[in-house]
UniProtKB/TrEMBL annotation:
It comes from Halomarina rubra. Homodimer. This is Aminotransferase. Belongs to the class-I pyridoxal-phosphate-dependent aminotransferase family. Residues 30-375 form the Aminotransferase class I/classII large domain. CDD domains: AAT_like (cd00609). Its EC number is 2.6.1.-. The lineage of its organism: Archaea, Methanobacteriati, Methanobacteriota, Stenosarchaea group, Halobacteria.
Amino acid sequence: MSEFDVSERVASVPPSGIRKFFELAEERDDVVSLGVGEPDFTAPWRAREAAIDSLERGRTSYTANRGTRELREEIARYVERFDLDYDPDDEILVTAGASEAIDLAFRALCDPGDGVAIVQPSYVSYVPGVQFAGAEPIPVPTRAEDGFALTPEVLERSGAADAEMLVLCYPNNPTGATMDREGLEAVAAFAREHDLTVLSDEIYAELTYEGEHVSIASLPGMRERTVVFNGFSKAYAMTGLRLGYACGPADAIGAMNRVHQYTMLSAPTTAQHAALTALRECDEEVTSMCAQYDRRRRFVLARFREMGVECPEATGAFYLFPEAPGGDAEAFAEGLLEAEGVAMVPGDAFGAGGAGHLRVSYATGMDDLRTAMDRLERFLDNH
Ligand code: PMP
């Protein structure tokens, strides 16, 4: 015990449902985990070499608050592939992972009591981020039968029209859903009509297996009301380097930088050098990793179909979100882990719309995926 009284705001936010499950999985050593949300690949060598080189040259100081000029310029060039056009001077902020950018956006752009509509099932950080900022999360549940697509009807039904801000993430964690231009145009029209600002988490943009990634910020009338998040964790397999960024209108990015300059000062310098090289020289590695994820995705989907496990066709990120056989995802995940040592995450951890589903990550080698699918098949045969 200590003299500290945890703040009510923090005490009211439950611990992450994903973590709890990992702790269970860590108790034994024969587990094949399809639970983790990070690449099984190592960052491309040239990016690592750039990090080593920057250390050898003694670049161990802070950078500019917003990130090195060179990296911001390279990011501006990179996002042009998504039809986005941002000024490296004041419309791009380099952060310690997309995670920091997301947290900054809530803190810098929300007032206490503001409604923040969060498209769910969702990545686990948005709701707590909104709560830490004193704002009010409004769940916007999407449905398996619509392939977890976001539509104006879904927004209308959940009361998003009364929110100040909308948070979406495509390609999606945890469902793997992507959205095409037409679908996003309908969402954009809703946002304009109801004067919503938009936070668009596009960290899985490169991992789009059918069609091409469309950024909502590239649609007419959306640039001025959207902040886009991206980073190096997923496409470049650089999770541990902790580097991401936000792009948006200068006043939004300026406000985020106001918080960032006092709380973080600058994103990790070594990682910024690695990221610069990743953007300049590592396209080929990204393409190769992406092709491997796609192969795995098709393999797991095919095995699910053979086993009669219902699973929406997911065309992005590295997740599938099948229905839990029997309907109770928590009981199924615990039973599968106990009997066969295969870890999947119950969908309830990802908020509304997630119940009865399992998040299955295929950021795992083919051999492990084969083993996991064989064990799943045996489990289904025996239960
Ligand atoms: N957004 C989504 C949707 C994610 O899945 C993750 C990582 N799991 C993040 C953001 C955070 O990424 P980073 O490592 O850049 O902080």
